[in-house]
Structures are given as structure tokens and as C-alpha cells.
Amino acid sequence: MAATRINRTWLAGSICAVLMAGCVPAVPPELIVALDAIDHDLIALGAPQAAPEEYAYFARQWVSLRARVHADDDLIRWPWESNDIEEELRRLQREGGTTVVRLNERRSRQRSTAESTVTRLEQRFLAMASQVQSFDGRVALGEKPVQTDLLIKQARLFFEQKDYARSIQAAEQASHALRIQTTALTQELGRYADDRQIRQWQAMVKQTVDWSRTHQSTAIVVSKADRELTLYKNGRRVLSYPVRLGFNGIREKLFQGDGATPEGRYRVIDARGAGQTQFYRALVLDYPNTEDRRRFRMAKQSGKIALTKNIGGQIEIHGVESELMAQTLGCIMLDNRHMAELFARVSSGTPVTIVGALTGSNSIALALSQLADQKDKT
Amino acid sequence: MILVRQMLVPVALAALIAAGCTKPPSEKIEAAEKAVKDAQQSGAGTYTAEEYAKLEGTLEALKKEVSEQDGKLALFRDYGKVEQLAATTAAEGARVKGEVDKKKEEAKAGALQAQQVAQEAVAATLKLVAKAPVGKDRAAVEAIKSDADALQAALSQIQTAIDKEDYLAAQTQARAINDKSRTVSDEIQSALAKTGKGKSSPSRKN
Question: What is the three-class DSSP state of A83?
């Protein structure tokens, strides 16, 4: 009798236990919490912006499943019943977790790429500015340096805002702009590294020095790359002085007002002493000569310069009007002490040969070569 | 008994017919879809990407529920949940669109303010360039003039970004221009300080 009672009690207890087990929630609450956490992680990683497709996939699934969980939360599930929603939620949890890890890695890589790219660009830009400054080539680049600088600044700002994708994009544009600058400089000043041109300049210098020797007279050679004036007497080097050129001096002179110092073989046609010039003393050259006029005509015909431009003139070797003058409009300027020494030794008719450079290893050629190396590296 | 049977048959038939007539709430579903599209077209993918993704999720849940109900026998179809989801989606869509409009206005105001600051900085730089000492370091002055011209030209990029509603890019460009403009102004100020008043270049050929 007692055994029967125990059996009944055990049976009733078992039934209750089974029924209570059936009352468990359709989806474990911790699963919902875990998926919510994944959603927050993805948002914190900027997934909606950085990986919109991946985030949209997760969010669509998550919202859809959550809506189903919400709708089914009053259902009672027996323990032996399969639970599709829970399985789908667990699958989404696995996928979401993988996405978080992948995005974390991707973001970390992006950050590192953006940081190194922007830093490298900033360094390269500064190095380039310094090299260009060293040979007064800044004017030749026009508006390009500012355009590049603005892109680099934007790349840095995007990086600071943690928008690494845009930072990299702006950095790539800046890198392209830097390459364009290098190409422009190479095109503009490539003749300083051109062997044929260098040989031609060397030949011009040799003829001038030979003339000085043959005629037992003085002759002047000016190297634009070295910014140096050398006086020869009887074919021998007598003295050398540093000079300042036009504000755009290293370029090839094309027209009046371009700030370039002309290259060619000239003669002193007038020596102006005290009171005859505003620049202390001046040796006036016969620019433009026949060759300059021919070049000017051809440049106009080819469209290299506008038809309205003039050839200019009054190119001189002169002293300093005032210390405010660091550059000329195209003339060759010496300190007044040096100008006085030179003026005393030179007279009308003295040949003056102005060349770009005397050797292939001139400062501009070396700077261009360094710029080309940097261009290749980035 | 016959009477009961005679009464039950029409009732059952009426119930079947009524059940067969149960259709999805097309207008409500269309309204929900339109709300999501409106939100997307207003730029929700950019300005409230997270909320927009979830809005799309709600729409997907709605479509799934419709197709689940459509797949059932007519007698067992129940579009009550569809109606509820459609209402939620439409309301959420409208809310997200409102949020986007608000964020866009804020971003636009920020971009316009940054644009104004940049314009003022460039104008101040151009004024200083006019005073730049011509005699001193002509190459530097010419370079500074080029810089100022480039800055002035760059101002148009801010407007282009604003016109494209890319306010973040507009703000970043404006900040970069403002920053560079100040650097150029400092260069001129420093040159002016060294030389005092600017000196006119003599009128010569060359």
C-alpha cells in the first residue's frame, strides 16, 4: 500500500517536473543578451559605415529573429521539441562573432595603413619642399604644392576622426599629386640632368674660356645651378663670386616678366658706374640676341608662350640696390663689394656665357634624382 | 439532429469563405516599403547607417511573415502579425527619415560654418598677399601668391562637396584650407615684420 503511494507520488512529481521543464523560455535570455552585445560591438567598430553590407546582413537577421522571438515568447516548448529560432540565433551569434573579429582585424589593419601612409606622405612632402627650396624651384610648381598639402591635411584630419578609409583615399590622392609634382619638376628642369644639354653647356663654357685665352682678355661664366659667377683672364680662372638670380632663375627664360635668367652667349654692351644705375654698378648684356629672338619666335609659333607676351630685355649683372632685394627679375646680382671688384676688371665687349650647369652632378640634377627615388618608393 | 446539421453546414461554409477571403494588408505593406525607401533616399544609409540597417531588417521580417502566411492553407492564414510589423516598419521609417533630416541639417550647418571660416581666412590671406614685400625674396613672394591663388581655388571644392551633400568632406576640406591659409598668413606676417613696410618693385623690363 505504502509502495503504491510512493509510486503515485513519484509519478506525480515526474509529471510536474516534465511540465515545468516545458515552461522554459523559448529562447535562452543570455543568447539575446549575447547578440545584443555583438550588435553593440559592431556599431562601436563603425561597421554600419565601414562594412555596410556585412552589418546590414547581421542587422537584418537580428531584427527579423528578434521580432520572431518577441512574437513567440508566449509559446510553451517541450524539451524534446526542436527549436528553430534558437538554432538560428546561435548561428547568427557565431556569424556575428566572426564578423566582429574580422572587422576588428580589418579596422586595425586600416588604422595602421592609414597612419603609416599619412606619416610617410607628410615626411615626403616636407623633404620635397626642402629639396625644391634648395634650388629655388618652388615657383616652377605653381599651385601644386598647396593642392597636395591640402590633400595631406585632409588625410590627417580623416585619420584623427577615425575615418580610416577616407584617410587612405585622401592619402592616395595626395600621393598621386606628389608624383605629378615630381613629373612636372622633371619635365621643367630635366635639362639639368640631360647629358646632351650638359655637354652643350660645357662646350659653350670651353669656347668662352678659349676666347679669353686666344684674345688675352677677360670673360665671364655664370652657372645657374651653382649660383656662381667666374671671371677668366687670359683663359685662367681669376675669381668666383656667389650670385643671386631671377626669382624664377633656374628656369629657361621664355618671356618678359617670367623671372627666369636667360642662358646663352652674351656680351657686355654697357658698363654703368655710380649714378648711372640704381643697382650700385651694372654691366648691361646684349639680351635678347639673335639666338634669343629665334627661340622666342619659335616658342610663340609652337604655342609654348602666348602671342601677347614680349621678349623683355635689360638683363644685367649688377649690385644690390638695397638689402631688401634677395632676388632679381631675371638679372644676375652680386654683393656690392664683389660687384666693385668685378666692375673694375670688366669693360664693354667682355663675353658673358650663362649656362644651366657645368657638370652632370649639379645640385638640381642630384635633387631631381632624389625626388625620383622617393617617387619610386611610394 | 437534421436541423443541427442543416444549420452547421452553412455556418461552416461561411467560415470557410470568410477564411478564404483573408488577404495580406497590401496597402499597409506598401506604406511600410515606401517608408523604408523614403528613409533610404533621404540618406539614412550614410547618416543613420545603424538604424537604417535595422529598419531593413524589420522590413525583411515583415516580408518573411507575409510569405509564411501566404504559404499556409487559406483557413489558417492570419495576417495580424503582418499588420503589426507593417505599422512598426512605417513608423520606424518615418522616425529614421526625421532623424536623417535632423542630422543632415546639423551636418550642413557645420559645413557651412566651416566654409565661412575658411572663406574669411583665405580673404585675410589675400589681403596680406597684397601687402607682401615685393623687393624681398621675390621667389618666396611669388610662391606665396601661388599658394593664395591655390587656396582661393580650393574654396570651390567645399561648395562642390556641400552641393553633393557630403558635409563631412566639406568640413574636412574647409578645416584644411583654414589651417593652410593661416600658415601662409603667418609667413607673410613674418616677412612683413622683417622688412617693415612692403617695397614696390622698380618698373623694369627683364
Answer: coil
Q: Note whether A59 contacts B: Cβ–Cβ < 8 A.
A: yes
Q: Give ipTM to 2 decimals.
A: 0.73
Residue in A closest to B184 by C-alpha:
A146
Q: Which of B36, B69, B103 is the last residue of a domain?
A: B103
Size of interface A-B (CB pairs under 8 A): 147
On whether the CB atoms of residues A292 and A262 are closer than 8 A, the answer is yes
* B95 shares its domain with B42: yes
Measured from the Cβ of residue A269, the count of other Cβ atoms closer than 10 Å reads 13
Q: Give average pLDDT by consecutive 10-residue segment, chain A, 378 residues.
A: 63 59 67 92 83 83 82 63 82 93 91 95 90 81 91 96 92 93 88 94 96 95 95 95 89 88 94 86 93 93 90 89 65 92 92 95 89 70
Report chain A's mean pLDDT, rounded to a whole number.
87
For residue A69, what are the CA distances in angstroms to A65, B88, B172? Answer: 6, 16, 44
Query: What pLDDT digit, counting tens, does each position of A252-273 carry?
Result: 898 988 888 999 999 999 998 8
* Fold assignment, A197-358: L,D-transpeptidase catalytic domain-like (2.40.440)
What is the least distance, in Å, from the CA of A138 to any CA of chain B? 6
